[in-house]
Specification:
single chain; alpha+beta; Aminopeptidase; 7-stranded mixed beta sheet; 4 helices; 7 strands; 37% strand
């Protein structure tokens, strides 16, 4: 079992640390260079949590912030009836592979089901990102299928695997 993982609101020092995190071209999380102070500007706007979207820090006891999780709305029909949250995670490279992501995604699902009326959560990852597919499965998500050429990254379209978790799962 990994160390104690919890989710918590952002602090200004977290936003500063995320802005300082080295962007790694070629990784699954790199979608091009971003402007300086992106996280700090977002934090100044709404503290990283708004009515229908947000980000929380993944905090590990004895270590501190190791990444974040986020959610944003997606619609499968006219709002509000076909509403779901798309969830995602980003961990600092040195903290991957230790189970923190699995636990953080499980905690995020519990949080969203407890504090929103959403019935469905969705997550997607590159078809070659086997580690994230395992983490989502362990966190209670179900693989639904492949979305062909759904993501533009590094000069090419990439297929992604779609996962979901329902309130009753």
């Amino acid at each position: 079992m990994p160390a104690e993982v919890r989710l918590r609101p952002y602090r200004v020092e977290d936003a500063t640390a995320f802005d300082a995190e080295e962007q790694v071209p070629g990784s699954f999380e790199f979608f091009g260079w971003r402007s300086a102070n992106t996280w700090l500007r977002k934090f100044a706007t709404d503290g990283m949590v708004a009515d229908e979207r947000g980000n929380l820090v993944v905090d590990v006891k004895g270590i501190g912030a190791v990444g974040d999780v986020g959610w944003s709305p997606v619609h499968h029909g006219p709002p509000p009836h076909g509403f779901a949250f798309n969830v995602g995670i980003g961990l600092f490279a040195e903290h991957r592979g230790r189970g923190y992501g699995t636990e953080a995604q499980r905690l995020l699902a519990e949080y969203l089901f407890a504090y929103s009326r959403v019935e469905r959560l969705e997550a997607s990852t590159d078809v070659t990102n086997i580690a994230e597919q395992r983490a989502l499965t362990k966190a209670g998500f179900t693989r639904e299928g492949v979305l062909r050429h759904a993501q533009w990254r590094a000069g090419a379209f990439h297929d992604v695997v779609l996962f979901s978790r329902l309130r009753g799962d």
